[in-house]
Amino acid sequence: MAGISAGASFVQRSLTKGRGLVRVVGFLGAAIFGIQCISLSSSGLLPFSTVAGLWPGANLVSILTIAMILCLFHAYTYAVMGTLAPYSGADYVVSTRVLSRPLGFAASWTLVIFSALVAGSLIALIPQSTIPTLLRILGTVTNDSSLLEMAASAASQDGVILIGTICTVIAFVGTILPARTIQRILGGGLVLGIAGWGILYYQMLSVPTSAFPAAWDRFMGAGSYGLQITLAAANGMQMVTNPASVTLAGLLVGFWIFYGYFIPTFFAGEVKKPGRNLLAGSWVSLIFTWAIFIGATMILWRLVPPQWLSAQSYLYQTGQTETAMPWIIFYAAILRPNIYLVGVVSLAWVVTLINLVQTYFMYCSRIILAWAKDGLVPFGIDYVHPTLRSPMLAVLIVAVLAQFGVTDAAQGGALGSQLNFVFFVVCAQLVPVAAMTFFPFLRKEWFESASPLVRLKVGRVPVITIMGGITLAYLLWLIVSSFLFPAVGGTLRAGSLVIFAVMFGSGLVWYFMRNAYMRARGRSLAQEMSTMPAVEDEAEA
């Protein structure tokens, strides 16, 4: 009875501090958040601009498909996590209650800070890459040199900071609105993003299969198409010799491409019927984006050989930007050089990138809210605006960190390196995933009283232990492969690992300092974090 009473006390305390947050995100909303965090714009470019050149000749369809299948197991683990603890920061709640309070907080701390910094680097991509690329496409298609000058201006350090700051403010304002309004904004952006991909499909499917070489030469110079593979080979490109091992190596990038399908777990306190909607929403977002990217790959293979796509990606990554334009939006534009179609695609790319940043602001702020409920951050950060129903201070903290990321990216820093970020996220996720995998054995009473999805078994073995075990093995492989295979491991320099170690260590230091501070005032983090929130819905709106 004492345990039940303590649990009820914890739930009441959580509901009181979180008053104002309501469950408004249903299945469709969870899917929209997942798709927008994966990003039809940012991730839609990666298979052709990055993966193809990292492993020249690798089968993109195999990499994306195997990654998607393994991500389904990962999505299940996180959906059950959100079902077990349907509150803000569900992964943090589970890891600190089940496995280790210090390790759980340090992992969450690392995730939030790096996510916020990477949100800044994503914002910086708008003036650094997205706008210049789109202006270069428009300038090339229309033969307007002034657009090329504008592209260079946007990508300058001052341009990146100015445009990036404006985009940060836009993302901040768009994320302090009520959750239902944010969902509508993201939904509108998703419709625009789907329309953009529809245009790309039309541009590439409405021409003969032999049309691409002539279209490329018309805009990039006579004979240019035929020289790309030779030029890439002269710069050191070598085709892969072991497709199976390369496909496995590419899974880290595959996880990067699909990263985001599970983010509703981080704000499970605003998801209606989390036991159903978290799993369905994450799986739908995964399969939907996978289908779009696979379709685009197959359509491009209809027009050009995979080796040519690898050459373009490789040349771009080695600095040959005058001859390389490895962007699917450029490939489509030269086939159907219609200024209005290119304009709609350009708008869709910018809007969905800002939507992507909003999803980062959303999930990071909710995890900070969970820390505040436990007393791990100063009083007041858990403030929820009574009208907007938004944790404004928590969102502001994330926006400030993101602005540091913008500035770092503008100056050529590596804090917001997205590939490094995915590696760091994988390391940080080992704690909550291990907690969820062993939860049935470490907290037997909680497991037996949990919701049906959490308690599912195959014979006598809990399903979450099986799915969590597969997820844990997948995460460990992603870590190992980043060092075994030079294409990825080469980007993880000693400095990056030091940054991760310092960040994780600072989380541990913060936890113990905060624990000492609370004990001096008669409170104990051990007591605050000793119970699992009960599964019961807050008010729905």
UniProtKB/TrEMBL annotation:
Pfam families hit by this protein: AA_permease_2
InterPro entries linked: AA/rel_permease1, APC_superfamily
Membrane topology, record value: Multi-pass membrane protein
Compartments where located: Cell membrane
Record protein name field: Amino acid transporter
Highest taxon above the source species: Bacteria
Chief location of this protein within or outside the cell: membrane
Transmembrane segments: 21-41, 61-81, 102-126, 159-178, 185-204, 246-268, 280-304, 324-357, 393-415, 421-442, 463-488, 494-513
GO cellular component, one term: plasma membrane
GO molecular function: transmembrane transporter activity
Keywords: Cell membrane, Membrane, Transmembrane, Transmembrane helix
